[in-house]
Amino acid sequence: MWTGQRHHLRSSLGFPSFIRDLRKEPHVSLNRSRTMDGVKEVNVSCMETEGEMEDNMSPEPKCPELCQCLHGSVHDKENNPMMRAVLCSQVCKVYRFQTEDLRWLLVREQMSETPLSFALPKLLLSALIRPHMDRVQEMKDLGDLTPHLERLRYDVVNHCNQLIGWYQEALRELNRHSASSSFKSSSVKSERHLQFVPTNLHSQRMEVTSPDCSGVWYEVITVGAPADHHQAFKHGGLRRLLSKHSTCRHSLVSFSADETSRARELLASVAQLQPLVFGLAEELLAVSLEVSGARLQQVLDSLTHQTEQFVHALKDELVRSVLLAIHNQSPADCRHNGHAHSNGTLHYPPPANQEEQSSLRRQQETRYNEEYDEEEWDRAWANVAISLNCIVAMVDRLQGREDRSREVMSSEQQDATEDTNSQNAASFFSWQEQLLPLVLTLRDCVREAVGKARAAMTFVVLQEAAATTVAQGPAQLIQRRHAVFSQAFSAVVCGFLLKLYGGLGDPNFLRQLHTVGILAQFEGLVSTYGDEVGMLEDMEVGVADLSGVAFTVTEAKTDQQDDLLLTLSGSWGSFIVGVPLPSETFNLLPWELKEGCLIRIHPVLFNIGINEQQSLAERFGDSSPQERVNQESCERLKAYCHRLRDRLPHMAGIQSLSDLLSSLHHSVESRKRKNVQVLWIAASVCRTVNGVRLTSCKSAKDRTSMSVTLEQCVLLRERHTLGKHHFSTALESMRRDGCRMENVKKNMGSRKFSFSGVQLLTFPKLYRPPDGTYG
Question: What are the sequence ranges of the domains in the chain?
Answer without folding.
Answer: 2-113, 116-181+183-245+474-701, 264-330+373-465
